[in-house]
Each structure stands twice: as C-alpha cells, then as structure tokens.
Specification:
single chain, 145 residues, alpha/beta, Immunoglobulin-like, 4-stranded mixed beta sheet, 30% strand
Length: 145
C-alpha cells in the first residue's frame, strides 16, 4: 500500500464518525419554558465529537464554562455578549455553563457528554444561590442528581 493510499484510507475511515457528529443548538433567552433568563434547553445529552452551538436569541447573553464544573480534557470557554459560540465536545464528562451577566438569576445549564456521571464535587463550585438551585433542578430533571 502506498503512502497516499494509506492517507486516503485513513481519511475515509474518519468520514462516518464525522458525519455522525451532532450539533445541539441552545438558545439564550430572556424568557423560556423554565422561566426568565434561561438557556433552552437547560440540559443536553451529547456524545464526544458533537458540538454545542449557543445562539444569542435574545440580546444581553453569553455562554461561559463554570470554574470547577469543567471536566478534564476541556479548556475554559467564554463567549462574548450577543455572539454565537460553538463548543466542541472533546471528552466524556459533565459541564456546567453559565450566562455571565445572569448567573445570579439562575441562568445556567448542564451538558452531559457520553455516559459520564456527575462528579461528586460538581456542586462545590462557588456560585450564587439561584444558580445552585437551578443546577440542582436541572440535575434532578435529567435524573443525574
């Protein structure tokens, strides 16, 4: 087998995996099904290789990883206010996400990548009371808490 043939075979082997990757759209809203200042959906179950696309549906929002709620293998991310941000899911784990200006109002969400369990220290991260309550609700609704 020639070098070029090996490269072509390698690329073709990756195509099915890439084609199966999914894009999960998450709206950043002033008002949604769960109340005011919310991500919709507030919980996403995804797979390694998928992407979360945060959409600034209403003005004044962003998406940012929560310190202490980011699994190993991920770099912290912070989108700009009113701008779309894509986050590629590179490893299994559970991620906590917040809207920086509205964290105190409970604008948070959870992303579970693969079958990863919620880490024991997930809720130990420093956060406002309403954000903590929202995370507890989301984990209970997703049957992860």
């Amino acid at each position: 087998m020639t070098f070029k043939t090996m490269i072509a075979a390698s690329v073709l082997a990756l195509v099915p995996a890439l084609a199966m990757a999914e894009v999960h759209e998450v709206k950043m809203l002033n008002k949604g099904e769960a109340g005011v200042m919310v991500f919709e959906p507030r919980f996403v179950s995804a797979e390694v290789g998928d992407t979360i696309k945060f959409l600034p549906t209403d003005k004044g929002h962003n998406a940012e990883s929560m310190k202490g709620m980011l699994p190993e293998g991920y770099e912290a991310f912070k989108g700009k206010i009113n701008e779309e941000i894509d986050v590629e899911l590179t490893a299994e784990g559970v991620l906590g996400v917040k809207c920086t200006p509205h964290t105190g109002m409970g604008m948070v969400m959870v992303v579970q990548v693969g079958d990863a369990p919620v880490p024991d220290d997930f809720m130990d991260a420093k956060m406002p009371r309403k954000a903590k309550e929202a995370f507890e609700e989301i984990l209970a609704e997703a049957d992860l808490g």
